[in-house]
Design a protein that fits this description.
heterodimer, A: MetI-like fold, 12 helices, globular, B: alpha+beta, Rossmann fold, OB fold (Dihydrolipoamide Acetyltransferase, E2P), 10 helices, 20 strands
Chain lengths: ~240, ~350
């Protein structure tokens, strides 16, 4: 018990004194996950839009596949990307293994299904009568899509924030693709795993607290966004948080 | 203005609309009435070019609407539609009303003044800056009407515009529709399952049943001269009697129904099997022992009251004279005459109030 209390006190000290290594790891984590989220969002939002707005054979199967990929184990993504990015792999030429670039790609791949699926749900949450109304008011196809996306903007933003949360909290891809190299690819989750393994609990607790604070910020943002949504969109995103 | 030729629409193996042929004139209020699920909404959506027909064509102001998307857009922009369930976007009321103008690239100053004018017409100017999603159902429907009106459409389509509203809001919307029609002479196409609303709002009525237009005519034609049993029942004719013409003297015929003889006006000749349609409000009731009113009522049928059902300020009273006959009596009359089930009364019907059609089978 005393070990936990003293670990907690030392952790707070590390945070308050802005310990350079703790800050560097936290900053790198945020940077990598933000970059991964931007890339994933720029692919997922148009992709979700295409799947929602266009009718094609196998649409339902595609949506089920995307939803299945929500829960793909991070180590499986890590393994697949490792095979792709390793020196002998098809993308080995780019030398991305054990680099932040590789981690960004890994996390983006991990969260693309989540953001895409939630974008589809967000667009589906917009009252179907709205697109009929817009078309009837003389909107072109493009104007209709634009307005429906605008109507779903908060739900789409929530999807992106949720994707960021998944990216920053995952450990499998960061460990396998990043390699947990100190000062280069060591992020919050991999550092916690390593430091706990070698018995440096204060350091792990400090990083854990920072990770929780980031999660808290994400949940607060989500709540603010969701409170501005229609009931249909709230349901599409799993209901109001509080 | 709009000519519909051989229109049909199927969804999978289900036929929603079949062989629709119709002409809607410029400036009239044409109302489709029919039970829920009869195809009214589908037909309005086809007219507004939101969907495409399976077969047939719609000619809009001499232009065939079976055209490329850009041409269809141009035609669609000459119309507006108000839906049964108004969908408003999560922005201000004024923003919602401005959509149609924004889509057409109208300048902001012009848009502002037209939005102001449209909101004034529907009486919502004071709510212009309110978020539209916070409005009541009636207010949302008025926003939808303002939004449809602001583009100054040549044709305004209204799909069950009062289906989800209370009586006060229903009256408000109906008055608004009439006022818009009087002011702008817009061609209006309405759908409603409420035959009384159809009666209040229409210049002409088309009755849709099971995806087919079964009768088109004036309010009088549809409500007093329905050309079939199903239409008659839908427009509130409770009593449909079967009989045989016993004699016909210059259009003044005697028809035997059960054990009674009913006098009617019809060209049907002796021996013809006929159906007699009698509206409940055309039937008067007098006490058996009371003085029979000295009127032009030719048919005085004696029978027993078998059923009395309250119907708003009226009592729907069924009299058995060998066949069933329904009368709509005011509550006050029912009380004054002390009408009760089991009582023998005289039901009076004018010969001219009975619609006769030859029985097809």
């Amino acid at each position: 018990m005393s070990e936990i209390v003293s670990g907690l006190l030392q952790a707070l000290n590390l945070i308050v004194t802005l310990d350079p290594e703790v800050m560097q790891i936290a900053a790198l984590s945020i940077m990598i996950s933000l970059a991964a989220t931007v890339i994933a969002a720029s692919i997922s939002i148009p992709l979700g839009g295409i799947i929602h707005f266009y009718e094609f054979r196998g649409k339902r199967a595609v949506i089920i596949l995307i939803q299945t990929l929500y829960s793909i184990p991070t180590v499986v993504v890590g393994l697949l990307l490792y095979l792709m990015l390793s020196r002998s792999g098809p993308l080995g030429y780019f030398g991305l293994l054990f680099t932040p670039g590789g981690m960004i790609i890994g996390q983006a791949v991990l969260i693309i299904p989540i953001i895409t699926g939630l974008v589809i749900a967000a667009l589906g949450g917009v009252d179907r009568n709205i697109s009929d109304t817009l078309i009837s008011l003389g909107a072109t196809g493009f104007q209709t899509i634009l307005q429906v996306v605008r109507e779903a903007r908060l739900a789409i933003l929530s999807a992106v924030v949720l994707g960021f949360g998944r990216a920053i909290s995952e450990v499998g891809v960061a460990m396998m693709i990043g390699g947990n190299i100190r000062g280069e690819t060591r992020v919050l989750t991999t550092a916690i795993a390593l430091q706990t393994g070698i018995g440096d609990f204060p350091f792990s607790i400090a990083l854990g607290i920072i990770l929780l604070l980031i999660a808290l910020v994400i949940v607060v943002i989500m709540n603010i966004l969701i409170s501005g949504l229609s009931t249909e969109s709230q349901q599409a995103l799993g209901g109001p948080r509080i | 203005m709009i000519r519909i030729e051989g229109l049909s629409r199927t969804a999978g193996s289900k036929t929603i609309l079949e062989s629709i042929n119709l002409e809607i004139n410029r400036g009239e209020i044409f109302t489709f009435i029919g039970p829920s699920g009869s195809g009214k909404t589908t037909l309005l959506r086809l007219i507004d070019l939101l969907d495409s027909p399976t077969t047939g064509t719609i000619i809009f102001d001499h232009t065939d609407t079976t055209a490329p998307d850009t041409d269809r857009l141009a035609i669609r922009r000459r119309m507006s539609m108000v839906f049964q369930k108004p969908a408003v976007l999560n922005i201000t009321v004024a923003g919602n009303v401005a959509f149609g103008l924004n889509f057409r690239g109208i300048e902001k100053s012009e848009t502002d003044s037209r939005v102001h004018e449209a909101l004034d017409i529907v009486g919502l100017l004071h709510l212009a800056d309110r978020k539209a999603v916070t409005l009541s159902g009636g207010e949302m429907q008025r926003v939808a009407i303002a939004r449809a009106l602001v583009t100054r459409p040549e044709v305004l389509l209204l799909d069950e515009p009062t289906a989800n509203l209370d009586p006060v809001n229903t009256e408000l919307i109906e008055n608004l529709i009439k006022r818009i029609h009087q002011s702008f002479h817009t061609t209006m196409i309405l759908s409603t399952h409420d035959m009384i609303q159809g009666q209040r709002l229409a210049d002409r009525i088309g009755v849709i049943m099971d995806g087919k237009i079964v009768q088109v005519g004036s309010i009088h034609d549809i409500f007093y001269l329905p050309n079939g049993k199903d239409i008659a029942r839908f427009v509130g004719i409770d009593t449909i009697l079967k009989g045989i013409v016993e004699s016909n003297d210059d259009g003044h015929a005697r028809v035997s129904v059960s054990d009674a003889i009913i006098e009617v006006i019809t060209p049907c000749q002796k021996g013809t099997r006929v159906s007699l349609f009698i509206r409940p409000e055309e039937v008067s009731i007098a006490l058996k022992d009371g003085d029979l009113p000295k009127t032009s009522i030719r048919n005085q049928l004696q029978g027993k009251i078998t059923r009395m059902v309250p119907f708003g300020p009226f009592v729907r009273t069924t009299i058995d004279f060998g066949s069933g006959l329904t009368a709509l009596v005011t509550r006050r009359s029912a009380d004054e005459l002390s009408l009760a089930v089991g009582m023998t009364v005289i039901a009076g019907i004018k010969a001219t109030a009975i619609h006769v059609i030859p029985d097809s089978g």
